Amino acid sequence: MAGGILIGTLAVIGFAVAANGTDGQGTATGNEEAGKLLFSDDFSTSKSGWTTYSKGSLLAAYKNGSYILTAVPANYWSYNSNPRLNLTDFIVEVEATKVNGPDDNVFGLAFRRRPGYNYAFLISSDGYYDFREINNNTYVDSQNWTESESIKTGSQPNLIKLVAQGDKFSFYANGEKLGDHVDDTLVNGSIGLYVGSQSEGNVTIAFDNFKVWSLKE
Region 178-205: what's the mean pLDDT? Predict the structure, then answer.
C-alpha cells in the first residue's frame, strides 16, 4: 500500500437488522465449515433496512442492487455495523468493488464490534490486506499491510471472507486464504462493513451479497 499505514478518523454507525432470507442452509465459497445461513442481504431493495446518508463524511446509498459507501474526506475511515448480529463464531462473506477514488484505499469487514472496540479485516484496491484491532476508538496495528496476488486490483470485484472461531481468525480473498491471526481481546459482537480513504478522499465502494453463516457443528 503506497505511503505505508495511515490511520484515519473512526466513525461508528449502527444499523438495524436487514436480511433477505435469514433462514436456510448455505455454504460459504470454498469452505465446508459453513453451517446454517444466519443472515443475508443482496441489497436489491432499499426496504431491507440499511440506513442511508446523503451528506457528511460518510455517504451511504442503495444503487443498482448494491449498498454504496463513500468516505468523503482524505484520511477518513468509517464502518457501519449490524448491532443485532451479536456473534462469537461465524463465517461472513461479501462482494466489494471500488466504484470511485484511488486504488490506495481501505475497505472490508468489521467484526466482534461493541462500542469503541472491534476487529477489522481490510483490503485495498492496490492489492494489500491488513488486520486491525480498534481499542477504545484507537487503531492498534496488529499486522502491517501485506501484499497479495489473490486480491484483485483497481475496479475489479473482490470476494472477501472471514472465519472467526474462538480466538483465531482466518482471512480470504477470492477463494484464497491470505492468513490467520490470533487474539482473545474481544469474544463477541456485531458485524459490519468498512470503507476508508488514505491521502485522497472520495473513496466509493459497492458491497453486495452480504452473508453470515454459523460454523458447522
Answer: 94
